[in-house]
Design a protein that fits this description.
By secondary structure, the chain is an alpha+beta fold. Helix content is about 30%, strand content about 20%. Helix 4 runs antiparallel to helix 5 (about 70-90) and helix 5 (about 70-90) packs across helix 6 (about 90-100). The protein starts with a helix and ends with a strand. Bound molecules: zinc ion. Zinc ion binds near residues 249, 260, 262, 303 and 308. Zinc ion (ZN) binds next to loops.
Length: about 500
């Protein structure tokens, strides 16, 4: 089996685009296999497809060949069934429902088997469940005769994302169970030790966050993996030998595109993420949609073909910079840069910006993030043009933590708002300057805390939550809202500097 796996690794280079594999390519592959392996029966061809074919290739094959479609559909499900049977025997079908009920995902080698084919039979199963589902899943594992190890260590880097962690054993099989600190299980996936480990599945689908690399049996070692390597540990795919892993992007032979490791990405809107669903009842989509975590791998890119490479950077505006626009002059510059940005932003809305050194709030353009063609929810706004949402050394963050939506003015509930307004504040750890504009609007507070950083306010319909352009008529009510929110300390959490 291992030999077949490594052969697939070589073949996969020809099929490294998850969208470009055509039936003709696959037919020639099968012919070549027939010639070299002397296989002639349909059963042999079926076996080869089952063992060697990656998931996007199977989906393509099923879409282009009527004869193959039933077989391709069944292979995806059979891969999940085989994995679950190995670990749960007669309770394999029950596992599908238990995993779904607890909104869990499978990561690690089992998910890689589902995506890439049966290069190996995994002996360990890594489960991640959202906060509140640990006890339920644990109870079921114990019912399946799994016993918890007395000592089961978690990699130190991941401990801030994991609330509870245990390892379970039953004969030769091992299961790790991790409980996320919140509802977002993908926060653990995006902090995996390598891009190959950023693959996860449910009972009905599989997702790869770096499909081009993973389908080519290549990968990048992520920051948590580099630490693991220094300690000589064995974690994720780093020492498994299945993937050709690299420490940086210098081996790329073309531009990174939207999957450049220096770009912040949000799985739900990211078109370079591969999502394959084979059973809609147990789809991976809910996990994707619940994901509020955006991530990036590196601060710098070493690919000489990539515009993000500092040595090769072309002239042009960038919004991922250390300081946000603070004066009227800077705001005008940023508005011009948004207008000439390449690729052009698809759409945008008007927001009200309270910049730290301005004498009055300014109406500004807020584009949608790259990859979003139309507004679906507040996550789609590229607010980072105006308010820094990440610490300088962050590689993952929750987008929601620096915003709050208001449906009434704090402490003035008798004055209902005609619209909902969302206030975005800035990441406090980056220590943004005191906001003179907002400080001048509010009386000194008893605790002496000052207000830091820019504020951006967006407007929505109360019921539909549709986004609306903010206009001059909104200024007075937004001033009242912001003032009241600050006085009554009802703001997003990290905007204040405590008095020394
Ligand atoms: Zn790059």
């Amino acid at each position: 089996m291992r030999d077949l796996g490594s052969h697939q690794g070589q073949k996969a280079n020809q099929y490294d685009s998850c969208t470009a594999l055509a039936i003709t390519d696959y037919a020639s592959f099968v012919m070549e296999q027939q010639a070299s392996m002397k296989v002639f029966s349909n059963n042999d061809i079926c076996r080869m497809i089952k063992e060697l074919c990656n998931m996007p290739a199977m989906v393509n094959l099923g879409n282009t060949c009527k004869t193959c479609r039933p077989m391709c559909d069944s292979v995806s499900e059979a891969r999940f069934a085989r994995i679950s049977k190995r670990f749960f025997g007669e309770r394999a079908r029950e596992f599908r429902n238990v995993l779904h009920q607890h909104r869990g995902v499978i990561t690690g080698s089992a998910a890689q088997v589902a995506l890439l084919g049966e290069f190996d039979t995994p002996r360990d199963l890594n489960l991640i469940v959202p906060h509140g589902h640990f006890a339920g899943m644990q109870h079921w594992l114990i019912k399946c005769r799994y016993e918890a190890l007395v000592e089961s260590g978690l990699q130190e880097d991941l401990s801030k994302f994991v609330l509870t962690f245990d390892t379970y054993h039953c004969q030769d099989e091992a299961i790790t169970l991790s409980e996320a600190t919140g509802p977002d299980v993908l926060e653990l996936v995006v902090n995996a030790p390598s891009t190959a480990d950023m693959t996860f599945m449910t009972a009905g689908g599989v997702v790869s966050l770096y499909p081009e690399l993973t389908l080519s049996w290549k990968g990048l070692i992520a920051p948590s993996g580099k630490w693991e390597l220094m300690l000589g540990g064995r974690f994720g795919s780093i020492n498994a030998g299945r993937f050709e892993l690299h420490k940086n992007t210098s081996f790329y032979d073309k531009p990174c595109g939207t999957s450049c490791p220096t770009m912040w990405r949000l799985p739900r809107t990211d078109k370079s993420v591969l999502v394959v669903d084979w059973d809609k009842r147990y789809s991976v989509q809910p996990s994707m949609h619940q994901c509020k975590t955006e991530w990036k791998l590196f601060q710098t890119c070493d690919n000489k073909h990539c515009p993000s490479n500092l040595m090769a950077r072309r002239d042009g505006p960038t919004f991922e910079q250390e300081y946000m626009p603070d004066s009227q002059f800077d705001v005008q510059d940023r508005l011009r840069d948004i207008g000439i940005h390449q690729p052009a932003f698809k759409a945008g809305y008007k927001g009200l910006l309270y910049a730290t050194r301005c004498s009055k709030p300014m109406i500004v353009d807020v584009p949608l993030i790259e990859g979003a063609n139309q507004y679906k929810n507040i996550e789609d706004l590229y607010v980072e043009c105006w308010v820094s949402q990440r610490g300088l050394c962050d590689t993952s963050t929750r987008r929601a933590k620096l915003r709050r939506t208001y449906y009434s003015v704090p402490k003035l509930d008798t004055v209902p708002l005609d619209f909902a307004y969302t206030i975005f504040s800035e990441e406090g750890e980056s220590d943004p300057p005191i906001n003179a504009l907002v400080s001048g609007m509010t009386p000194p507070r008893p605790n002496g805390a000052s207000v830091q950083g820019n504020f951006l306010v967006m407007k929505q319909e109360l019921k539909s939550k549709d986004l609306l352009d903010i206009c001059d008529d909104d200024r007075s009510v937004v001033n009242l809202l912001l003032r009241s929110a600050i006085i009554h300390e009802a703001m997003p959490p990290t905007h204040q500097r405590k008095a020394i």
